[in-house]
Amino acid sequence: MSRTLAVIPARAGSKRVPGKNTRIFAGKPLVQWTLEFACAYQGFDEVLLSTDCEDSAVIASVCGKPVPWMRPPELAGDDAGTVDVVLHALSEYQARGQYFDRVAVLQPTTPFRRTDRWNEAYRLLELGVIAVVGASVACQHPYWTYWIGNMGAMSPCFPGKSTLRSQDLPAAATINGALYWIDVSVLRQARTLTPEGVHAVLLDDALESIDIDTEDDWVHAEQALLAAGVLK
After folding, report:
1. What are the structural domain ranges in the chain?
2. Which residues does residue 49 pair with via DSSP β-bridges, in sequence order?
3. What is the pLDDT of residues 94-124, one digit of tens each?
4. Which segments of the chain have a pLDDT < 70?
5. How many C-beta neighbours within 10 Å does residue 84 have?
6. Stated pTM of the model
7. Can you say whether residue 201 is alpha, beta or left, with left for phi > 0 and alpha for psi between -120 and 50 degrees?
8. What single-letter DSSP state applies at residue 70?
9. Where would I find the H helices in 115-165?
10. CATH number corresponding to 4-136+173-228
11. 3-state secondary structure of 173
């Protein structure tokens, strides 16, 4: 049986929404939504909150997953990439005699997840897919986007495609941070969560598409919860 490590990257620093991971969102700290899902999902063999934040570590302990080590400073800055954080986690576990075939990444800024989506991702991996990501339908099709040059001059990003009718457009999506799942060997070689050959699980639920990176995102997320009846 393949073993999966679930990594939740939650560093302390956030310039656009200070302290967002521990800030109360819909009745609980934002990061707790993701922790609770990861701890309950049966497809994960181990769950790690990778953090340099003591408050986040306390929340992990409350959820039953004490942080085994704090993230080192060199992986806690603005320049630290998620892949580096995940590879560090895998190395730390390997040093402790624990090995994993797959790794999942759950960004805490996307707090709502559905088990059936992860089950779909698992089935794809079992069929031989090397990596799966969650994706949402693109709000604006890339064929209809333009580069902006000097004095506002516009040029199509995809020449010859900008005049296509909507019914003639190929399906397009944007990656959603709610779901990443990849073979460890592929991650180590490609050093990306979205290597060539990655497949998508479409997340078409409005709550699943919530991604909180700015204060405006926070407000819009709360409005979405009100509309869905989650908040009263």
Report:
1. 4-136+173-228
2. 8
3. 999 999 999 999 999 999 999 999 999 999 9
4. 231-232
5. 14
6. 0.93
7. beta
8. P
9. 115-126
10. 3.90.550.10
11. strand
